[in-house]
Specification:
Elements: H1 3-9, H2 15-29, E1 34-38, E2 41-46, E3 49-55, E4 63-67, E5 90-94, H3 102-118
Antiparallel strand pairs: 1-2, 2-3, 3-4, 4-5
């Protein structure tokens, strides 16, 4: 079993269901994305550059769907929040599957992918 699969299996509910659902949307929407297991969490890379990662932060009660270049996307996608005072990462916090606007999330994935493809590097700051 791949480490990323183990990561998902070891998550408690509702986090496991939320993460597996997000994973399926990412993989279905962006067939070119590469799923990696880095820093003990799942990352989704475009052209070897990290675009999104999924995590459950300690002491929090939600899945953090974090966009590496989120600072450049937050104006067009106000659903992205600056949690934990991160310099460039912005994220969507999901407590339930119902918290996700599927259509808007797909648009966000396409925008993030296009942005990252045009960038020389993922980390701007």
């Amino acid at each position: 079993m791949k480490p990323v699969d183990e990561y998902f299996i070891n998550q408690k509910e509702p986090y496991q269901s939320i993460m597996l659902y997000i994973r399926s949307i990412i993989l279905d929407t962006l067939p070119e994305v590469e799923e990696k297991y880095s820093y003990r969490i799942p990352f989704y890379n475009i052209e070897k550059k990290p675009m999104i990662y999924l995590n459950v932060l300690k002491g929090k009660d939600y899945v953090d769907v974090a966009f590496v270049q989120g600072i450049l996307l937050e104006k067009d996608f106000p659903v992205l929040k600056n949690d934990n005072k991160r310099k460039q990462v912005r994220s969507i916090q999901l407590k339930t599957l119902e918290d996700l606007d599927h259509e808007n999330f797909v648009k966000l994935l396409h925008a993030a992918s296009e942005l990252l493809s045009k960038s020389k590097k993922a980390w701007l700051i």
